Amino acid sequence: MPSELFRVITIGDFDGKPLRHTRSLSTKESADEYVKDCERRGRRVESIEYFRRDGELSKPTAKQIASACLSYRHDYGVLSPEEQKMVRFEAVEWLRAWQKEEVL
Do 36 and 82 belong to one domain? Predict the structure, then answer.
C-alpha cells in the first residue's frame, strides 16, 4: 500500500462532450508527469487531491478554514460576506500550494 496517494481529476473532450476522468497515482512525480501529459493532450486539470499516509484527504473543514482566516486576518469577522469568501478562497489556495511543495 503506498504511503501517499495523489488523485488527479481532468476534463477532456469525447465526441464534443466533456468527459471527466479520475486517475490515482502513488508519487508526486508521477502525478506531476500525468498533469503535464494531460495539458499536452488538451485536457483541463480540474483538481489535484493529496491523501496523507493515514488515507485522509488533506482538506480542512469549513470551521478550520474560518479559524485560520481569523488567525491571519484579525478583522476577518467584520469583513463583508464577499470579502470573507475571498479570504477563505485565498487561504485554501495557499494551503494547496504548500501541500504541493510537500511542506504540509
Answer: no
